[in-house]
Amino acid sequence: MGLIVQKFGGTSVGNSERILNVAERVIEEKNRGNDVVVVVSAMGKTTDQLVSLAGEVTSSPSKREMDMLLTTGEQITISLLAMALQHKGYDAISFTGWQAGIETEPVFGNARVLNIERTRLQAELAKGKVVIVAGFQGATADGEIATLGRGGSDTTAVALAAALKADKCDIYTDVTGVFTTDPRYVKGARKLLSISYDEMLELANLGAGVLHPRAVEFAKNYHVPLEVRSSMERESGTIIEEEGKMEQNLVVRGIAFEDKITKVTVLGLSNTLSSLSTIFTTLANNHLNVDIIIQSTTNKNTTDLSFSIHSEDLKDTLQVLADNKESLKYENVQFESDLAKVSIVGSGMVSNPGVAAKMFEVLANESIEVKMVSTSEIKVSTVVEEGNMIRAVDSLHQAFELAGTTVKS
Amino acid sequence: MGLIVQKFGGTSVGNSERILNVAERVIEEKNRGNDVVVVVSAMGKTTDQLVSLAGEVTSSPSKREMDMLLTTGEQITISLLAMALQHKGYDAISFTGWQAGIETEPVFGNARVLNIERTRLQAELAKGKVVIVAGFQGATADGEIATLGRGGSDTTAVALAAALKADKCDIYTDVTGVFTTDPRYVKGARKLLSISYDEMLELANLGAGVLHPRAVEFAKNYHVPLEVRSSMERESGTIIEEEGKMEQNLVVRGIAFEDKITKVTVLGLSNTLSSLSTIFTTLANNHLNVDIIIQSTTNKNTTDLSFSIHSEDLKDTLQVLADNKESLKYENVQFESDLAKVSIVGSGMVSNPGVAAKMFEVLANESIEVKMVSTSEIKVSTVVEEGNMIRAVDSLHQAFELAGTTVKS
Fold this sequence. Notes:
Two copies of one chain form a homodimer.
Chain A: E1 3-8, H1 16-31, E2 35-40, H2 46-57, H3 63-87, E3 92-95, E4 102-104, E5 113-116, H4 119-126, E6 130-134, E7 137-139, E8 145-147, H5 152-163, E9 168-173, E10 194-196, H6 197-205, H7 213-221, E11 226-230, E12 238-241, E13 254-270, H8 275-285, E14 293-297, E15 302-310, H9 314-323, H10 325-328, E16 332-345, H11 355-365, E17 372-376, E18 379-385, H12 389-399
Parallel strand pairs in A: 1-2, 1-9, 2-6, 3-6, 9-11, 10-12
Antiparallel strand pairs in A: 4-5, 7-8, 11-12, 13-15, 13-16, 14-15, 16-18, 17-18
Helix pairs in contact in A: 1-3, 2-3, 5-7, 6-7
């Protein structure tokens, strides 16, 4: 007897047949004697369809109204899943984000969860009901509907698991677990039995795509055990927990990659103690995410600063920089698009010097130019041209001996 | 300078192009110097599509989850209309039913509006914004999403007009006004310049389809002037107000008709003082609407009771009667489906004896059997076979001299 939070993504609830399949997975868990909270995303292409509908009306929709529009997607799924469970003879009740007590900060399009008021969900669980919650959404203290941004349904699931002190949070998806790299692009990519929060966090942050980084962070902070597993197959997935079992004591655990990266360079930035703080505070206040940052001082008075962003944020980033040119005190802005980020991740790296050197050597042998570099204790990231991305991943996957047979259990 | 509530139905917001057209109609009103509150329905066939999606999952969806599902339809429209207005340079903000402070009774599928908390809407109007509200929906005091039933968006519009003390409530639809009868079926049907609340109420109740009866009742009770008009044409529509202007002093003002009627007969009902009250209280408690009621006493101890319902409520009605057979004390239940109701309406009727007689004569001449009759001071309703409906309307429209040229203004 415990409490399990299950999360099913858009593909898993893509049509009514799949929703009935999800109901079966919920019932299996319920029949094991567990209380179940289910978090679902919008059905398949619903979000894309809504975005395109907005595009027919305006080229620059306000974020508030986009959130109003997009949150209908998950609301459709929760009601259909509740109906499916009721149809199969199980008591179920659906809740939108605001009904589930998910309070977010007052930001549209990319809000953080501030608090979860558990009373209503706990009351329904106590009645033996399966509780279904719309992912990706919440409401501000003022009663405004806000979304949690990309991958927000993962965050909803983990946040609910933390708030309700769930025993486990299962992330059901269209892959069978976390792989050494994306098996759609690299032959021999291998499923990991387990991985640590920190490694997963680097992989998630680096665009592995299986799990949203904010969700992993939440899970790490609140010690929520996660399992990434398939909504179609019955095999076990990948457990994400405090210390990943060192199955093969690999120095590099996985390789992540992400395209649509743009490098922005601010030239002739006034070289004062506060200039870096000012520029990134300004961007953060406009909810623009900056990833890799490189500074190279050219002379005493000014400095050149480069940073990477998602290409979709380029327009807003340039606008914010232009709007604040006077206060930021710089000469010029340049940018380079069509870039990609390739990263190696592994907690064994910290005790193995020369891992970064080996990475650069592999890329150099492939004649791949490295445009930016960033390192942490457990990862090395490089920015390369988009066209070189898959070749870089492939050669690194071989060089670090990650290939192998998929672990079945 | 005043406050106008505009309501646009599903056809008027059927696609993005029409939503942009609706934005123009809103802007015209705003540019006249008025504050504007806009109530919209779900886009075109959205509600039907959602109902069919539910049908793929279960044959008997719970009403709570249907409300959860269907309310997404209006939420999509409000966000798109807000985007359209913002695109055209007008400040606008959209609200779901619960955000707009529309509190309903705790009933799903057919809830009544209990109260409207105006603060939030008034604050946005004071900022000069166009306020857009999702029709058809509200929330209970417990935060459950509930719909107002068929034609509920009209009710939302009139309830908001009453709560905000609007100067006028314009119901934009796909017809140019209220007609003597449905022009799609009867040639020579004529648009009325004005009509009284009571006449409109009878016409709305009788299935004229232009306006929801609950909305007319609300308008009458709170003295909200209504105008039914076209969302595509610029011509004036039909004003609904305290005393309709007696343009031609017609005895009969209009003819309403409605198909999908079922006559239910309860045989051998125990003839006590409370038996009628018990049976209809039981049906009402199950939110089943009964229309015409006929009682004929056959002997001292028992009575036969007939009433008409919407055919879609037949299954539930038979279930409720069966479930309560013991307490209701009757012998048997019969029913006859595929019936229709045809009614003549006009406030002149009260001072003109013989109107009902003329109606029966017209129907008899057409060899149309009258299955049930019900009268009020301003209407006579008959139930006939569905196949005779249009012929009955046609012959009555001619006999009461309703045909004429459409009034343009």
